[in-house]
Structures are given as C-alpha cells and as structure tokens.
Amino acid sequence: MTAHPPPVPPFRDPRLPFAKRVDDLLARLTLTEKIGLLHQFAPAVERLGVAAFRTGQEALHGVAWMGPATVFPQAVGLGATWNPDLLRRIGEAVSREARAMRAKDDRVGLNVWSPTVNLLRHPLWGRNEEGYSEDPGLTSALAAAYTRGLRGDHPVYWRTAPVLKHWLAHNNETHRDTTSSSVRPRVLHEYDLRAFRGAVEAGAVAGVMPAYNLVNGRPNHVSPYLREQLRTWTDQELLVCSDAGAPSNLVDSEHYFDTHEEATAAALRAGVDSFTDHGTDSSKIVERVRKAYERGLLTEADIDAAVRRQLWVRFRLGEFDDHDDPGVFDTPEHRALAQEAAEQAVVLLRNDGILPLIPGTRVAVVGLLADECKLDWYSGGLLHRSTPLEGLYERFGAERVTFAEGVDRVRLRTSTGAFLYVPDGGADDEAPGAEGALDPALLAGRTDLPPLGTDPVGTELALVDWGEGVLTLRAPDGRYLSVAEDGYVRASADQPGGWVVQETFRLEPHGAGHLLRHIGTGHHVCVAADGLRVAEEDGEVFELVLVERGEDAVARAAAGADVVLVVAGNDPHINGRETEDRTTLRLPTHQERLLHAARAANPRTILALVSAYPYAIEPGALSAVLWTAHGGQAAGTALARVLAGDVSPAGRLPQTWYASDADLPDLLDYDVIGGRQTYLYFEGTPLYPFGHGLSYTSFAYDDLTAQVTGETVRVTFSVTNTGRMTADEVAQLYARAVDPSVPRPRRELLDHRRVTLAPGERAELVFEVPLSAFAFWDVAHGRWHREPGPYDLMAGGSSEDVRLRTTVLLDGAPVPPRAVRERGLDAADFDEQSGTALVDRTRTAGDAVSPAGDRAGELLYRACDFGSGVTEVSVTVAGEGTVEVSLDGGPVLATLATDAPSGPYGYTELTTDFTADGVHDVRIRLRGPLRLAHVGFSG
C-alpha cells in the first residue's frame, strides 16, 4: 500500500484566502500559545511548525541597527525633497535590503517601524529629524509613498510590513512619558489625525505604534482613537505595536492604573496587539496577560483579536508559503539613489549670486561638520562615506581646497602640574564592527584600550562646545574620549553615540580651574594611579590651557581663499535627539564664533547648515546660505555638486524657520489654532517660510484656472523655466477661506508637484482637489463642514511666494447654531478657550475640561440656540470648584459649586436656575480642580 503524505492544514494552503488561513491557524493555537504571541519576541509553536517572530525593525532612512546598509538622508531631509516618487523608490530599496539582510541574519525583521508621521509642529522637538513636515497633507503624501515602497509591488505578498510612528500628538521629549498633549477636536481632526489617515487610506500601512505621551489626560496606549478612528479608515487588519517599555509606564511612571494586569488588559482591549516591553524577556507580559485573563479583565476573544492581527501581518509577508523575495543589497542603483536623494534634499535659502561657484575657485572649507558624515540613532552603518570636504576634493581638486575644522585645541593640567595624556591605541585600535554598525556598546567605549593617564607633556585635545556647555574631547588621531562600564576614561569611540551618550562632558568652574563632569554618568573625572576614571568622590580640578582657538585657524584658511564655506550644524546625538529637546533655535556659541571669524576674514562667505532641525541665524552678511539634513552616505558628494552647479538646488523647507525663540509657542502647547502655530496660522514674519527654496534658474507661472466639477475643483496653471539651466521646480498650490465663520489657516497646502524643466520648457500642471479639502471640523455638530462662499487659490514657489491667485465660489451650508436645549454642550467642544486643558472624562473614553494649573479657565461656545427659552442649567462635574455661566460677555447668570471630593471620575450633576432664549454666545468660567464634562439646559 502506498503511503500518502499527511494532509496540508488549511493555513498552509496558498490557494485559500488569507482570512480563512488566519482563522484556521488561530483555531489551532491553545490559549497559552496565543498569549505567548502577544510579546514583541513571539516564540515558535513547534508542534504546528510555526517559527518564532519578532515585531519591529527600524528602517527610517535605511535598515538600521543591523550593521552596514545603504544610508539615505534623514527623514526631515527626505521631507525637503517634496518628492513622493523619490520616497517610494527609497522605500523599495530599503525593503529589498531588509529582505537581503534577513536572508543572512534572521534577527533582521520584516515588520518595519517606519515612517514617523508625527508633524514637525515645534522646531525644538528633539526628534525633529524623524518627521517629514509640519504640514499634515505633505507628511501624509510622503508617508504613503514611502510605505508603498516598503510594501513592494507584489499583488499578494508584502516585502516588508510598515508601522507608522507615533500615535498621537507627540512632539516633546521632555517628560515624554508623563506629559499630556491637550488636543481639542478641531486640532485632532484637522491636524494630528490627518497625517496618519491619508497614509493608512493609501493602503500600504500594516499598523501603527502608539506614542509614550498622553493625549487629553489619557495614555496613547489605551487611546479610544485606535478603535474610533484608526480602525475605521481601512478594511484591512492593522497591527498596533507598543513603544518600548510603554506598557509598564501605564503603572510605573504614569500611575494611570494600579496594577500591571489592569494596565495590560486595558491596552489590549483598546487595540494594542504586540507588547514591546522588557527586551527579549516575554515572561512578564505573558504573566500579566494570564493573570488579567484569570481575573476576568480579559476574554479569550480579546486575546484572539490581537493575535489575529499579528497573523495577518505574517501571512502578508509570505511566512507560511514558498514565497521567495531574496532582495538585493548595496547595488549601484541604491548608491545612485542615495546620491539623488541627498542632492534633492539640499535647500538654497539665500544667494547673492555667488553660487554656483565658477570653475577654478579656491575654496576654504571650515567648520565642525566640514569633514563629518554624521549618523543618527536610527541610521544603519555606513558602507560608503562622503563628507563635505571629501566631496569638494573630488569635485574641485584637493589643490584648490583648504580645510580648517575650527576646534579649540587644549591641554588639561592637573593640580600636580602634570597634563592629561592619551596613550597610543595601537595598530589594531579600530573597534570591532567599525565598518558601520550602530552598536551602543561600542559607542559607549571599549575596555581593551588603556585609560587616559598623566605625564609632564600631555596630549593636545580637540575641544568642541556643542551648546549649553556640552563638550566633546578628541585625541589627535580622531578617537573621542569616552567612559566605559568600568568607569575609566579612554579614547575609544569613533563618534559620540549610544542611547546614553558616553562621550560628552561639561567644564564646571571651580576655584581657579574647572571640574570635568561626565554627563553620561553625572560624575566628575578623577585622576587615579591606574588612570582617569569617573567617581562620586571629589573630582580633579583642571586648568584649561588653550593651545589654539578654533576661530584663528578658520580665519587663516578663509583669508587665503576666493570663497569660504562654513559647514555648521548639529551632532545628532547631542543637544536635540530622542529623549532630549532643544532649548533654543540659535547656533551653539562655538559655531557662531567660527562663522563670525570666517566672515571677518573673507566677506565671500557661504554657510552650509547640516542639521536635523531649523536654526535662527542672521543671514544678511552671508553671500549664500544652504541647508540640508544629515544626508547619509552621499551627503558630501551631493553638497559639492550643488555648489558647483552640476545640480540646481530644488529642496524646499518642510517646516517654518522662525527668526527667534520669541516666535515659538511653549513646547507643550499643542493647540496649533489657538496658539497660531506653523505656517498655517503663524502671523509673524518667519526667517524663511514653509516651502521656501531658491534655484539657479528662474521660473514663470501663468494661466491659473479653477473649475468646480462635481466633488472636485480642477486647478491648472503653467510653469516655464525662463533661465539657462535644466532644473527642478516645486510648484505649490494653496487655499484660503476668504470669509470663514471660525479661525481658518492663513493658507493651506492643497497639493504640489516637483517637475524637471529644461531651459525654455513649459509644463501645464493639473490638480484635482476634492471639495473635502475645503472643509473644517465643526465642533458644534461633530462633523466635517464646508461653508459656502469664496476661497482663494494661490500658486507659487512657497507659502509666501505667491505668483498667481484666483477665487472660486463653493456651495455648502452655513453652520447652524448649536441646539443646546436638545443636546446641551459637551465641554470639550468649545470654540475658544483660555487657561484650560483637556483631560480624560473616563479611563476608557471621552474628554472633559479642567482649569490648567491654579488659574481659572474660560470656555466660549458660539451661537447657542436656546429656542423659545430655558429655565435651568445643569453641569456634569467631578472634583471641587465652581462653574459660572454667562451670555454674550455679560454678567454671571448662574453659579454651580461642588465641595465634595469625588476623585477624577466621580461625576455628579448640579442644577440651578438659568433663563435664556434665542441665540447667544455662552461663556463658562471654571474655578478650582474640577472636571467639566457636559452642560445641559432645560425648562
């Protein structure tokens, strides 16, 4: 008798639809096995032949953390390209490299946590480098393009499964796990949700990651918006992966729940499907879920819902089939793409005609970033490297380029008269993995090198002050002083880096000298018999002996050149990074000194800012100013080609550059409407506006037409290259409501197009704008609303460079008054406020309003219709305090007070006499630590 092979289980049958296969596999799993799958590092289910699976692989601008890979420009630099097609191609390259790397290393994951779609609302946010733009439409378009590339073009299987970060309203690192973003409904719908929604609706997103912060008093990891918003935007199953450690934060730092079992159950029910907590140790999460289930806080159906979403991702990735996608790695095409992206990301902010540089120009390249190719926390390792200096050597010839870094050169003398001495690292001092792996253990410092000591002569160190008094110290051979786990100071790192940077110090005046504090440990540097180390005991008092000022070297180089290029900016691991917000827009003082020295020595000075965020500078005395984000492996080549005119710059600013810190709102003020934030609402004069960027050629705009057809406005205009070289132009289309009934944007980007035009070439651009783009969120009725009336359409080269304008009349309906007699007022649906904050109405749903701090708060609700009249007002409140109600700015007509402490969610209803009829504005004043949920009118 012939033996027949065992039947193939349905979940292994590629002829069946994924839904049936997912259901079949889910039904075969035991409850214990399903609970085990809820952690980031899900174990194998060997009896079913199901492999272990890991959610999470960083891939923000290339495959990160897994060794060498193609490194593209930072995300904010990709945002500056304004080029969705480019981002799609980069996404394809990244996903192909992820597949190729996984074929050799199964630690490389295919569930990629990128892109970051948090809006660049505030330029002091430490993670500014990770986002695309302050505009939700541009962010969404670029994110959708990148995820399409990451997903791949196979009709069934996904090359990688992208997860968007970080849900929701996340723009501060300062106390990021305990601060709450107060986001009123209009800002929520018109701004923060919009960036996520467009990308999800484009169809290539596998899920989202909630952010560490709270929104309206409720942690994002138990956000009802996951259910009420996110999961309504698509028919696909979406995987929600927690941020690292955030499930434990619900109890440990946020104190939102009393026990981890309650917190884990609440997060799972809210929609979190994969728990990233305690590293690779899944036991704590598994135990919490098990206990929550045993206590009745979870049902098996709750667990099944989360596991089902995980399995959908795994089936899409082809895990259970013979789908073969080996990928490719570091191809010539990927190298060319990295250079193209770096070139497209360069923004020319100012030019008095000095650029492009004429052949034969002698260039002095100076500055702290002139010979640097910096990586950030989410970079892969460099396979190839190009600094601005190297790019200029290559393009102009080394004989025409001079260099001065501009570091201060110092010696540190101890109290005994000896100097700090850096021992020779030896012939084999290249650190393991130095080909580019971003390894925090390596960057924290090695222990196989001798620590620093002292001798009569000492070693001359390069000292750089990166601002706020944060220093790095570097040996003559390029090694940075670093502190290893054993506490000794060694010259052992090729760059500052790591989750806790171990290469930064601070000089603290002490008597006639300075103490040297190591920032990573918080301890002072001491001189011991066996070498320098950090310790809690009293530190050594050092005398700082200045050998050469950085500006002196810069001035010498600048004076002997035709043109001086100052390359300034930031180190992505210092003063503005994940876990650390910036405190100012200004350049660090050290770099300002170098810039002033260069200008004084040579008026033909060009500033190239290489940074993860905007600066406030004084450009007037500069011949030209350029900005680019850290541009990855081809940064230097790209900058040199732009300076030489091989490429006309066409990058455009993805966020407003403000003139000073005084123009900025508080970092925690998330009300872009009330706070008049971003180009949408800012009423001051920016240093450089959103969308700004110059070219080496000129463009003419003409023939703007607009026609309403059905549910769209068809807008056309033409752009002509009127200059002498082929170049890209980024044509931008904006709109403005002429006579709105509520505050609307000064102008808002509707669409854009990046086009390449030869000299004399003309292109007609056509935009199909949906009428929904002209709507706003009507808080009075909880819906989108388009008002009738005139809307200006503006075309041009930036948000302020408007070349053409026309007006269209759109139909619609006026916003009706609030029917407060029938529905009352939900407190959060105010039109204006002062001195209040939105808080959670309950732990699971709804918003309430509370006075912010010790101040009284005020809420305004416009056009409230009391009909034929009311005789009573009631308020639903928790806590202690008073609620005062008035009409149209008049006297207080009703006061309702509660003095019975009830806890934050112990609501009570208070009623008192109140007479009104017709339509009025209602003003409500809140006093004391109470929460107002609802106001009702009756009688």
TrEMBL record:
Keywords: Hydrolase, Signal. Pfam families: CBM_6, Fn3-like, Glyco_hydro_3, Glyco_hydro_3_C. One of its GO terms (molecular function) is hydrolase activity. SMART domains: CBD_IV, Fn3_like. PROSITE patterns: CBM6. It comes from the Bacteria. Gene3D superfamilies: 2.60.120.380, Galactose-binding domain-like, Glycoside hydrolase family 3 C-terminal domain, Glycoside hydrolase, family 3, N-terminal domain, Immunoglobulins. Residues 823-938 form the CBM6 domain. Belongs to the glycosyl hydrolase 3 family. PANTHER family: BETA-D-XYLOSIDASE 5-RELATED, SUGAR HYDROLASE-RELATED. This is Glycoside hydrolase family 3 C-terminal domain-containing protein. It comes from Streptomyces fuscus. The lineage of its organism: Bacteria, Bacillati, Actinomycetota, Actinomycetes, Kitasatosporales.
